[in-house]
Amino acid sequence: MSASARQNRAGLALLAPAAILATVFLLLPLLAIIVLAFTDYQLGDRSLRFIGLGNFRDLAEDHAFWRSLSNTLIYSAIVVPGSVGLGLASALLVNSSASFKSFYRTVFFLPVMASLLAMAVVWEFMLQPSFGIANAVMKLLGLAPHNWLKESGLALYVLAVIGIWQSFGFNMVLFMAGLSTIPRELYDAANIDGAPNAWTRFTLVTWPQLGAVTIFVAITSGIRSFQVFDTVQSLTQGGPNKATEVLLYTVYAEGFEFLRSGRAAALTVVFLVLILAIGLLRFLYPGRQGEAA
Fold first, then answer.
1. Which of 51-60, 116-125, 189-198, 280-289 has the largest mean confidence?
2. What are the φ/ψ torsions at residue 50 (nearest 5 degrees)?
3. 160, 182, 212, 190: which is closest to 92 by C-alpha?
4. Residue 162: is it exposed, middle or buried by C-beta count within 10 angstroms (0-12/13-18/19+)?
5. Do you know which Pfam families this protein is assigned to (predicted)?
6. CB 203 within 8 A of CB 88
7. How far apart are CA 237 and CA 224, in angstroms?
8. Half-sphere exposure of residue 168, counting CA atoms within 13 Å on the CB side?
């Protein structure tokens, strides 16, 4: 046997465990979901019936589905720019501070490391209408208190604020990695050319050099925001009156509360298509470092 053949066999042997695990835990469950999406299967039934595109037609006519999709899009439209902007600002702050860099890095990254279900208890206490910190501050400012998680016009935006708080620390780390790759000579050249202040150096050097990183962070944040479930489940359960029901919560409700597995699978397929569409946006951008976002 030739040396190249032995190398190929060794490579396949090393690849085999990962390929088997991916098939068992990713591809086969995905295939099962796709098959179930075309059936009327209900959890616990001993039989199922193929109904073609029936589940998808029902979703197209279901007001609750469009409401959850709309809520997800609104949530993402708030969380993505908020977490990206705050993550960039935090990275610039940490990068410019020599004395407290470790402190800032720990504090800003803490929400990423913390268990969201545990932190949801803290948020629920802070937003409690009778004795919560949020309403105490509102009263000090002379503003009317609110029942933050029970008002239809506020609840989704409150969850979006929590989503920004949870996500910006991760984005900060990505931006810090991007900042570390910017050559110092570019800043020296900007000073020689007469860049008068930090804002000018940011717009001329830092922002253009972070173009590819910013696109990556925005797409990653978009995917993460579409996956919101924990805060909805622990704080609002989709209420009030479905004001905070998002796609993943609808999947959960259909599959485990109403036991309509076929319909839940169809919702999952729609969700996966949306996630795939967001991920494919990365390939529409050339991703060359140094381009403006």
1. 51-60
2. -75, 130
3. 182
4. buried
5. BPD_transp_1 (PF00528)
6. no
7. 19
8. 24
Check whether 48 has a pLDDT greater than 80.
Answer: yes
Question: Where in the chain are the domains?
Answer: 55-284
| Both tokens assigned to 101 | 């860099």
In the predicted model, is pLDDT for residue 99 greater than 80?
Answer: no
Tokens in use for 177?
A: 């990695």
Q: What angle do CA 59, 62, 66 make, to 5 degrees?
A: 85
Which CATH code fits 55-284? 1.10.3720.10
Q: Does the reported pTM lie above 0.85?
A: yes
Per the listing, tokens 């940011």 go with: 202
CA 239, 244, 249, 255 torsion-angle sign: positive
